[in-house]
Design goal:
The protein is mainly α. It is built from 3 helices and no strands.
């Protein structure tokens, strides 16, 4: 799992070279950006898992 630097640059409408420069010269900014996208991916994954669990509970209750 994880988003590529190229994809982050695309979503932020930056040139990949700009993001790469941030990685070298503005490491805290770069890390915050990457952490933000990682957090978003994790939240989306968790929402999917919650929906699947709710569906399983609903089926379980129907079968009882």
């Amino acid at each position: 799992m994880g988003i590529s630097d190229r994809e982050i640059a695309r979503r932020l409408e930056l040139r990949p070279a700009t993001l790469n420069e941030w990685k070298k010269t503005r490491t805290k900014l770069y890390q915050h950006v990457v952490d933000g996208f990682t957090c978003k991916e994790l939240m989306e994954s968790m929402e999917t898992n919650v929906d699947e669990i709710k569906e399983a509970i609903r089926h379980y209750k129907q079968d009882r």
